[in-house]
């Protein structure tokens, strides 16, 4: 019997897990997912994801693939695997794909959102769901700074010291800042690929501009410096969401959908 490749769309609350990638404590999204797939398929599987989210980071558009000997209807994979998952993780869709499909390498773009609770006092209702900035944010200045990051650049100033990527060159195709209501600010960032902590470091720099600590022009100086020490602190993980991964239509997987994460 031939193995077939399956792609899954995942949604999860990352606050309960030690990130995506398997760890000795086995309290990661990958560990939970592989255990659930194994229980349903009655075989050991190895999964590969589109983007390795850190501890505390959420996803409503993660994509993974794995190979299996089991033959099931696509929707049976959704219901069947979901039976064995904790309530913080859900399978949104399943598709049989060609053997050449690769969740990470076939991706054309990745989309993230960062949500900020912008009020002088914190709210327990958004704990682990949004970052908190108690100083008032000037969204117009943040948007002007964000526009300076668009295009293909060396993003060394926005990568973590632990980043293992051979190159810091990335193409940022979207970076916009919106105030959704009086307390909530949403930052949407899209690129062909991201460096480790890149989104959280970009958001940290935009917050530094929004609070008036730095000028709009400062962010261009940080980008040109190619030096992490010149940028702002990494913002907390709780407000970050992997919202979608984009592939060529021929891959046969659903395209990312726009969703309002807070109402």
List keywords for this structure.
alpha+beta; Alpha-Beta Plaits; 5 helices; 10 strands; globular
Describe this structure in words.
The protein has about 260 residues and is of the alpha+beta class. It has 2 domains: about 5-105, 2-Layer Sandwich (Alpha-Beta Plaits), CATH 3.30.70; about 110-240, Alpha-Beta Plaits. It contains 5 helices and 10 strands. The protein has helices at about 30-40, 75-80, 140-145, 200-210, 220-225, and strands at about 5-10, 50, 60-70, 90-95, 110-115, 130, 150-155, 170-180, 185-190, 240-245. Strands 1, 2, 3, 4, 5, 6, 7, 8, 9 and 10 form a 10-stranded mixed sheet that branches. Helix 1 (about 30-40) packs across helix 2 (about 75-80) and helix 3 (about 140-145) crosses helix 4 (about 200-210). The longest helix has 13 residues, at about 30-40. The chain is globular and about 60 Å long. The termini are far apart. The mean pLDDT is about 95.
